[in-house]
Amino acid sequence: MQPNTVLNTAVLGTGLLALDLAERIQNSPRLRCGLVVGRTAHSKGLRQATDMGCLTTAGGIAALLESGRKFDIIFDVTNAFDHPKHWAQLADTGATLVDLTPTRGGKFIVPSVNGSEATEHQHIGLVTCGGQACIPVLHAISQHYRPRYVEMVATAASASVGRASRLNLDEYIETTQAAMLDFTGADTAKAMLNISPAVPAPPFRTAMTIVAPGLQPGPVRALVEGAETVMRTSIPGFHITSCTVVGETARVIAEVTATRGRMPVHAGNLEVISAAAIQTAEQHIAATIPTAKENGR
Questions:
Q1: 3-state class of 215 per DSSP?
Q2: N or C: which end of the chain has fewer CB within 10 A?
Q3: Does residue 134 register a pLDDT over 90?
Q4: Is it the case that residue 70 has pLDDT exceeding 50?
């Protein structure tokens, strides 16, 4: 792969998250939005994608496969029920499938933690928005303290939780808990999601708890602040609003406000996983570009 390589991508889905992802791809110097795929020809999202200058098609995964186009990366922004079928149909195409649905089939990638591993896998799972928001913090602490228990309670505005997400609530919880265990090594993990109907709509919020022996307030706060700094490089609206340590229990609260024009400010849950998808794709490219030394230069 050459240093100026641009990967051709497709976005499967036309919701707000999919449209933001397509816009990010258009703005990336390393990615090309080759196709946005919807279910029906007259959907609002597909019209918006067309207005953005994207090539579009309707008919779902069948239309993607019948397009005759070769894609390096395909982003699945549909739902957890359909994703396994999509992977089964796409596995032989050679494309890397990046899953933004709460499914457990692919390799869990959280860019700021293990993004360098993206190139090793053809099937990548981005956990959930709650997982992307909490795992960098929990992982940072768990590298210095052995956790017995980790917990994450996410609160998302009702207006930012679409129909597919509501249908996938069980999968959201199960996948987030599995990833929390995977990245922290804790004995037990618990994830919860609140959908808030409050007006005005609240920003996306994750309240984290970690129970581990030997916790010290100063070092824990330093670890949390370090994770926040890394997160803010790709998600400017990510802020730690509270960090307390009492005995063997640390509690951390993070809020994510959306900062992109297409996103309402309360949709930080969508922005955090959209940013993770682009980071993962770009890390996938960076890890496969030969260095000057490897090229003999």
A1: coil
A2: C
A3: yes
A4: yes
Whether the CB-CB separation of 242 and 252 falls below 8 Å is answered with yes
Nearest to 144 by CA among 236, 198, 222, 82: 222
Kindly list the catalytic residues: 129
Reported as a pLDDT band with limits 50, 70 and 90, residue 261 is confident
Q: What is the DSSP string of 121-189?
A: -SEEE---HHHHHHHHHHHHHHTTS--SEEEEEEEEEGGG--HHHHHTHHHHHHHHHHHHHHHH--SEE
Position 290 pLDDT exceeds 60: no
Average pLDDT of the chain is: 94
**Contacting residues for 27 by C-beta, under 8 A, at least 6 apart:** none
Query: Cα 143 to chain center, whole Å?
Result: 22
Q: Rounded to whole angstroms, how far apart are CA atoms 131 and 272?
A: 10
By the 8 A CB rule, do 55 and 36 touch? yes
Average pLDDT over residues 74-96: 97
Q: Evaluate whether 269 touches 18 at the Cβ level (below 8 Å).
A: no
Average pLDDT over residues 213-229: 98
Residue 263 carries which side chain, given as an amino acid letter? M
Tokens at 188, concatenated: 């037990």
Task: Please give the domain boundaries of the chain with CATH numbers for all domains.
Answer: 7-126+275-288 (3.40.50.720), 129-265 (3.30.360.10)
SS (H, E, C) 73-112: EEEECCCCCCHHHHHHHHHHHCCEEEECCCCCCCEECCHH
Please report, as a single letter, which amino acid is at residue 204.
F
Query: Residue 229 is encoded by which pair of tokens?
Result: 């700094």
Using the predicted structure, report yes or no on whether residue 87 has a pLDDT greater than 50.
Answer: yes
Q: In this structure, what DSSP letter does residue 232 have?
A: H
User: Is the Cβ–Cβ distance between 151 and 190 less than 8 Å?
Assistant: yes
Tell me, what's the pLDDT at 126?
Answer: 98
